[in-house]
Amino acid sequence: MARLPLLLVIALLAVGVAACGSDDDDQSTAEATATATTAADACSPDQLSLVNDGQLTVGTDKPAYPPYFEDDDPSNGKGFESAVAYAIAEQLGFAEDAVKWTVVPFNASYAPGEKKFDFDINQISITPKRAQRVDFSDPYYTAPQAVVSLKSSPTADATSLADLADAKLGVQIGTTSLDAVNDLIKPSSQPQVFNDSNDTVRALKTKRVDAIVVDLPTAFYLTAAEIPEA
Fold first, then answer.
1. Are 127 and 170 in the same domain?
2. Which of 16, 57, 147, 159 has its CA 20 to 30 A from that of 73?
3. Total structural domains within the chain
4. How far is 146 from 74, CA to CA, in rounded Å?
5. In Å, how far from its chain's centre is CA 66?
């Protein structure tokens, strides 16, 4: 995520500190309150450097999968990350209709260079390399990696990473799932890398790959809704 959620976190922490002062320490309380007010003012819409004045532009990839989004529509407020984005907007003082969504391919969200969004929310794992390019908020969840294969695939019976060594694996470009394949599974052949999650899932369905590697919450959704034969 970009700088905006980080600013929000700082502002909320300042408010929390102010609320915890002793009743007997009026000076400390006053100073903490002033600090909180200053931090909050710095995050008000008219003080923020926005892509479009008066509008909070939020980026995410497409398709936008459950449970993070619902009906592939980030603007409906349904799904965890959609709700988080609108909660951030409310805390910053933006009305719901002032929040505008834009499609940002996953690996473009943390790429160097000018951005066309104020912040991006898209299951982006925090890594030291990515943190050199963008500012992250505090993490709002952590997720391990998972392997998804069809029941008919030879990888369906795998019980260890070693059992996947000779498998044809598919993974989305620029993801920590790709890092996990290369660093942990270390397959004997190069994994097939796809531009987006749609292409990755399609490769599994059409048996171009034996298995795909994704975040665990995504795996739960895929096996329950998109690939019941997995």
1. no
2. 147
3. 2
4. 25
5. 13
Residue 140 belongs to some domain of the structure: no
> What pTM was estimated for this model as a whole?
0.66
> pLDDT for 141-199, tens place per residue?
888 999 999 999 999 999 999 999 999 999 999 899 999 999 999 999 999 999 988 99
Angle (nearest 5°) at CA 137 between 132 and 138: 110
Average pLDDT, the chain: 84
Tokens 């100073």 locate to 31
Residues 26 and 52 in one domain: yes
For residue 52, give the DSSP letter.
B
- Asked if the structure places residue 8 within a domain, the reply is yes
CB-based contacts of 161-164 (< 8 A; 24+ apart in sequence): 161/185, 164/211
**Which residues neighbour 224 within 8 Å (Cβ) at sequence distance 6 or greater?**
none
Query: Which residue is it, tokens 């892509």?
Result: 51
Spatial contact of 50 and 57, defined as CB atoms under 8 Å apart: yes
Range of the domain at 15: 3-131
